[in-house]
């Protein structure tokens, strides 16, 4: 190979990646830059596996020449056009991960989390209704805020833990899949003949494993609390520890069995490893983006479970016809756009079904006849269009789902009506011979690359062309095990991606606020509200269907022009400055109620007030905060605070020594590495939270709750971040911590009310 050909090889094949990397230095510090960097890294991983890896493991295959037509010989743009179209085709396949694969993982994951929680509660003593009453959770921020916080903070600890588990489970999965190959008499991966059924199934196997890990992890990351204790912490720790302890030796044994097996196909092993790790890498990069909506789905399931156990409510079918109409309209829009825009474009590229079948034949590695560069280019363009169809359909139907949610506001009912009609129309359209909005039975191909070259200015330009291998999951006369195992993914993925992206569009920028409603002297109902964008209908206003909360809009959001208001409007704005339920301020008389409705409507559309509806609710016992102690890891006291401001609290040095002694005694007596989290002493409960350098103890009168533990955890995190320069090598000086009491009051002020 001549030096100039090596230059062409490196420059042309690396040019798309270089082009994609250009914006990173200019936007890296912004939120969009953090997101773009993750997408870019995912594309790079995809590029290495789908573009570079086939070159490394196809050394026994001669590169296929992509011939040029006579009129293309001196066309300088042809080389660049092919390279970039192939790269865009590859990027299209990459985006199937966030638009199809990951949506399955982060939608089914919450369902597994719910089953894990249900199993956990069943083991607890007592009646399920009472146990659900002790189940609390928190969701204080919008999904967009959670995503922004996760991206900017740059904490990869959760992702590292998940990645370690995926690596541990990789050899076990590999051994399992190789046993299935042998038992069913299926082929492994043979790049010479293009037998790739198992290569395609590798991706499905990864999806199932990642879904299981997400289901376990969500119980932890969602901060579900039972009787004031985060049940996910111990559950995830025990499960992950068991997987590490059991999985690691089994993984090593699997590797030894592979090495001892003389029939092992090492190309298959390397490909399995590469594709599995590619999926793991992309999963890790997008984990913080999809996790907030998965947590939201999980909490919605819990909230629905709690409500069905505590009170029976009739299903409200108001506006049921709206998602039905929207679903039918979406299908009509899709069919019109596909038939009059996308399909003619496909025909213009492919020209005929016979020509497309010929392209698929030539996309096989084992094909031995002449292939033109134009044909490889057309195949990539066709793949780009197919990706566009997928993304377009997801965006269209997800947006329409979110619009339906604005009228129904119930996930289950919206999904049943809207997705039901879209699925029904898709099936009917498929039987009629047209391309359906949701394609439940697409032809499955395993897509990779194969070395190729074309002549340009009398030099050979080496690159990769797209090759497609038809997937056949059935066995000849045997039990179709792989086909059955693939069904949960293959027949639900295109429905699930519409559902989860619809929820993302609906909830992404939703603002959440919480309001405490006192129920007697001891119990408090905590309601999390989300703001709605449309003014309630009169029937809902009369019946107070959603327990509307009326909130006065902060002054900066009010329109600039100053309007002279009537006295009743001024009085109303004064009344709702502390957030009031609609039923608290609405008149009783019918005529006054109607007039008041239009007054509220006027204020709503002038940006003076906003309406909020409940998303989650739970009850907890109000406690009386007594004192807070911050203690260094070696037992020295740092800060103490008396919430009652009456009388003295216990000596902080004595308390610090006491906790150190108790912790040491429990570790020695039980031989356990578990940290002491709670001490119950009559009507006093001591809640303990740990940081890297400190631990903090909160004394409360009454039962502990998630509220107290969550606030204590927030304070410990703030304290360590605020004093991170002093804590690692603390000398004993107390003056750096004098400002901590103000923060204690700020964080716990809600509980003091």
3D shape: globular
Helical stretch tally = 24
Q: Report the end-to-end length measured between terminal Cα atoms.
A: 79 Å
Mean pLDDT: 80
Low-confidence stretches: 557-563
How many β strands by DSSP? Answer: 17
What would you say the CATH architecture of the domain at 624-752 is? 2-Layer Sandwich
CATH class group of the domain at 624-752: Alpha Beta
Rg (CA only): 31 Å
Major β-sheet profile:
5 strands, antiparallel
The share of residues in helices is 55-70%
DSSP strand (E) fraction? 5-15%
CATH fold-type name of the domain at 624-752: Beta-Lactamase
Main-sheet strand order equals 8-9-12-10-11
Class of secondary structure makeup? alpha+beta
Feature tags:
Beta-Lactamase; five-stranded antiparallel β-sheet; alpha+beta; globular; 17 strands; 753 residues
Account of the 3D structure:
With 753 residues, this protein is of the alpha+beta class. Among the domains are: 110 residues, no CATH class; 129 residues, Beta-Lactamase, CATH 3.30.450. It is 59% helix and 14% strand. It is built from 24 helices and 17 strands. It has a 5-stranded antiparallel beta sheet. The protein has a 5-stranded antiparallel beta sheet with strand order 14-13-17-16-15, with helices on both faces. A 4-stranded mixed beta sheet has the order 5-1-6-7. Strand 13 and strand 14 form a beta hairpin. Helix 9 runs antiparallel to helix 10. The longest helix is centred in the middle third of the chain and has 45 residues. The radius of gyration is 31 Å and the shape is globular. The termini are far apart. About 1% of the residues have low confidence.
């Amino acid at each position: 190979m001549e030096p100039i050909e090596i230059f062409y090889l490196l420059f042309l094949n690396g040019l798309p990646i270089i082009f994609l990397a250009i914006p990173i230095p200019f936007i890296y510090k912004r939120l969009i830059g953090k997101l773009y960097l993750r997408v870019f890294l995912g594309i790079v991983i995809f590029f290495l596996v789908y573009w570079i890896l086939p070159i490394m493991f196809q050394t026994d295959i001669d590169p296929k020449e992509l011939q040029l037509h006579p009129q293309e010989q001196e066309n300088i743009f042809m080389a660049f056009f092919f390279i970039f179209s192939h790269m865009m085709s590859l990027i299209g396949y990459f985006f199937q991960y966030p638009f199809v694969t990951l949506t399955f993982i982060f939608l089914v994951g919450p369902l597994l989390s719910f089953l894990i929680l249900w199993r956990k509660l069943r083991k607890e003593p007592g009646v399920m209704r009472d146990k659900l009453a002790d189940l609390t959770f928190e969701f204080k921020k919008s999904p967009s805020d959670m995503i922004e916080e996760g991206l900017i903070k740059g904490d990869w600890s959760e992702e590292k833990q998940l990645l370690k588990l995926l690596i541990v489970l990789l050899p076990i999965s590999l051994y399992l899949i190789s046993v299935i190959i042998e038992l069913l008499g299926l082929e492994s991966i043979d790049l010479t003949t293009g037998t790739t059924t198992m290569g395609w199934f590798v991706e499905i196997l990864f999806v199932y494993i990642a879904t299981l890990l997400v289901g376990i992890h969500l119980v932890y990351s969602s901060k579900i609390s039972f009787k004031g204790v985060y049940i996910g912490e111990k559950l995830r720790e025990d499960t992950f520890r068991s997987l590490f302890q059991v999985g690691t030796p089994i993984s090593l044994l699997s590797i030894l069995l592979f090495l001892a097996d003389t029939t092992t196909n090492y190309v298959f092993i390397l490909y399995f490893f590469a594709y599995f790790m590619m999926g793991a890498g992309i999963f890790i990069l997008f984990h913080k983006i999809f996790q907030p909506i998965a947590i939201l789905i999980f909490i919605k399931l819990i909230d629905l479970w709690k409500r069905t156990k505590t009170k029976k409510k009739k299903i409200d079918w108001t506006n049921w016809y709206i998602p039905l109409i929207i679903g039918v309209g979406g299908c009509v829009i899709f069919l019109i756009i596909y038939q009059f825009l996308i399909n003619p474009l496909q025909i213009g590229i492919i020209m005929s079904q016979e020509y497309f079948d010929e392209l698929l034949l030539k996309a096989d590695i084992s094909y031995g006849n002449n292939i033109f560069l134009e044909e490889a280019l057309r195949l990539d363009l066709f793949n780009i269009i197919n990706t566009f169809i997928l993304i377009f359909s997801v965006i269209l139907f997800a947006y329409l789902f979110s619009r339906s949610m604005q009228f129904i506001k119930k996930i289950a009912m919206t999904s049943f009506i809207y997705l039901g009609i879209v699925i029904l129309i898709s099936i009917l359209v498929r039987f009629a011979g047209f391309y359906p909005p949701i394609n439940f039975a697409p032809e499955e191909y395993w897509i990779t690359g194969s070395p190729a070259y074309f002549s340009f200015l009398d030099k050979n330009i080496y690159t990769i062309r797209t090759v497609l291998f038809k997937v056949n999951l059935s066995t000849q006369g045997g039990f179709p095990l792989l086909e059955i195992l693939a069904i949960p993914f293959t027949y639900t993925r295109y429905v699930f991606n519409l559902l989860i992206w619809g929820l993302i569009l609906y909830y992404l920028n939703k603002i959440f606020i919480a309001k405490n409603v006192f129920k007697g002297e001891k119990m408090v109902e905590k309601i999390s509200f989300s703001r709605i964008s449309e003014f309630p209908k009169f029937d809902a206003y009369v019946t107070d269907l959603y327990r509307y909360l009326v909130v006065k809009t902060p002054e900066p959001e009010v329109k600039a022009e100053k309007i002279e208001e009537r006295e009743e409007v001024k009085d109303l704005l004064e009344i709702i400055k502390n957030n009031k339920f609609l039923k608290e301020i609405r008149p009783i008389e019918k005529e006054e109620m109607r007039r008041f409705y239009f007054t509220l409507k006027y204020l709503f559309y002038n940006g003076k007030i906003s309406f909020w509806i409940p998303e989650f609710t739970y009850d907890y016992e109000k406690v009386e905060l007594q004192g807070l102690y911050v203690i260094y890891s070696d037992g020295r006291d740092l800060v103490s605070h008396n919430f009652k401001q009456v009388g003295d609290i216990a000596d902080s040095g004595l308390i610090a020594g006491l906790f150190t002694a108790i912790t040491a005694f429990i570790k020695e007596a039980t031989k356990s590495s578990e940290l002491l989290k709670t001490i119950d002493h009559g009507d006093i409960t001591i809640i303990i939270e740990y940081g890297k350098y400190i631990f903090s103890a909160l004394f409360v009168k009454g039962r502990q709750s998630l509220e107290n533990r969550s606030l204590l955890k927030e304070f410990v995190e703030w304290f360590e971040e605020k004093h991170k320069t002093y804590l690692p090598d603390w000398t004993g000086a107390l003056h750096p911590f004098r400002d901590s009491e103000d923060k204690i009051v700020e964080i716990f002020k809600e509980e003091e009310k």
